[in-house]
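Input record (one chain):
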Amino acid sequence: DGIISMIQKILDNKNAYINENHVLFDVTSFSRYGELSNRNTEEMLAGARVEVADYKKNPGDFVLWKPSIDDEPGWDSPWGYGRPGWHIECSSMAGTFLGEEIDIHGGGQDLIFPHHENEIAQSCCANKSDIMANYWLHNGYVTSDGEKMSKSLGNFATINNLLLNFRGEAIRYALMQAQYRAPLNFSKKSLDEATKSLSRLYRAVEGFD
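The corresponding structure, as predicted from the sequence alone:
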């Protein structure tokens, strides 16, 4: 319901349009589109190389609501049976639980464009505001033996499993070895080194109050 309500506000404010049962955000209606990622809207539209769906006015327009077919998940809406685009879900949750303007929005560097850029556009247009978040913090990738750590690759470890072999403070120490915007290689070797570094630190201060 919150997502549908937010999409309706964007439509009412003339920042979106309906075509072939899709509700799409019109990026040309938001003059600050591209500011977060330092991209020029006109250049983005002119330089689009992907095949553009015929229901879009502009290549950069993104889906707020799309129809569901066959066994795809879906819900009833004013625009037919369908489901939300993945950007609008985050804007709706943030607005519902944190407010129309939040202090800090974090995420990986790979989300700056298009996800966070789209979040700003749809949130500001729905709320008729200038700001979605006061500060944006984008962290570097966490890698495992030089490869990006992800569920799809299966090269990740849960904290519960790591705690079977390493102390929590050693895990935290290993994670603090890189500035948050820089990539961090997280491996058994880095955890072993963190454990040794902490042991040396404890020995150095042993006996001091």
